[in-house]
Amino acid sequence: MRFLHTGDWHVGKTLRGRSRADEHRAVLAEIADIADDGKVDAVLVAGDLFDTAAPGPESEEIVYETLLRLSRQRPVVVIAGNHDNPNRFNAVKPLLELGNVIALPRVAKPEEGGVVDLEIGAGERAHIVLLPFVSQRGIVKAEALMSQDADEHAGEYAERLSQVLARLCGVGDGLVPSRASAADPAAVNLVLAHAMVHGGTMGGGERSAHTVFQYSIPTSAFPADYHYVALGHLHRAQELAGGCPIHYSGSPLQLDFGETEDAKSVNVVEAAPGQPASVEQVPLSAGRRLRRVGGSLATLAELADTFGEDFLWVEVQESPRPGLADDVRELLANAVEVRVPLAAAKSETGETKRGRAPQELFRDYLEDVGASDERAEALFDELLEDADAA
Length: 390
What we know:
There is one protein chain. Mean pLDDT is 86; it is low at 142-147, 173-180 and 208-213. The chain is of the alpha/beta class. It is 31% helix and 21% strand. The termini are far apart. The chain has a six-stranded mixed β-sheet with strand order 6-5-4-1-13-14. α1 packs parallel to α2 (57-70) and α10 (358-368) runs antiparallel to α11 (374-389). It has helices at 21-37, 57-70, 86-98, 142-147, 150-169, 209-212, 297-303, 324-331, 350-353, 358-368, 374-389; strands spanning 2-6, 14-15, 18-19, 42-45, 76-79, 101-104, 115-120, 124-131, 188-194, 228-232, 238-240, 246-248, 265-270, 278-283, 290-295, 311-316, 335-339.
């Protein structure tokens, strides 16, 4: 049987205030086409469907229409990620299930939805363990946060979440195995999880304390007799070393300028009972590229026609002056971030600054960083007068 693994859609994500809804529609339609053309038997969505816990109507429309389209020809299994709102997921869960979409907003016992058994085709079965995102607040108690160091918190998180996963997978480590959740030798056995796993490489667009403080679990937490582990949370598509195939599918779009080098894709997995799984990484082409560029205004003008529809992060190599960023944006309509590097200011002690007027200090600062400009000085004077008047 064949499965499509995707996740980290982050629908509703903007780029410096610019909507990416059309890009999300296009790339999610591309994923649905891949599922149809590849005749996959089920789709696994590894969380973070939305970018915020309170998505707007347009974002909800995009996500739910995609889930229903994917589910027309096969079941879809989806879990909540750290950007998703479990309460909203729970509210729409009964409606999604009418459309052949199985959704799990929070970790549940095997017999209460934490494990799903799908009948696919003539006698073929898939046994799927579901692990929605669990924050450190759900694992590490308040007194531990107050009394332990950060590395101790991380160790406790890894140990306890590994125990949760062991319970779901029906394996030991002091826990009572569950027949309902143990690997089925006559089925394809899968794990669908939204988590940080040891050894994972961030794509650059993730924004979560969970990744910053490395609250993660080891790859050894996943049973070696499972066919495939479908992960969400990290935006770079990657395989992790473990006893079985462990993959992040990554995000379908370049979501932030930390992901400019990431190629986007989905995984199509083929597996059969008693046989190792094969994984095909299918590239995605929809969505606009994010690119970092630099140069003088003259250089950028020469290159402008080569950037196409790419969103640009621009470092302009000119002497700083008021209006420079506006000039860049006028030249490059898709410049969403403009940076002007400044020279380091000279270090002054409080004694050398004492008794000097703010206007004088500001002029000295502009001179130190190579940004002297009479218009900037005049604007500063006006702001200072307004502040004094207030």
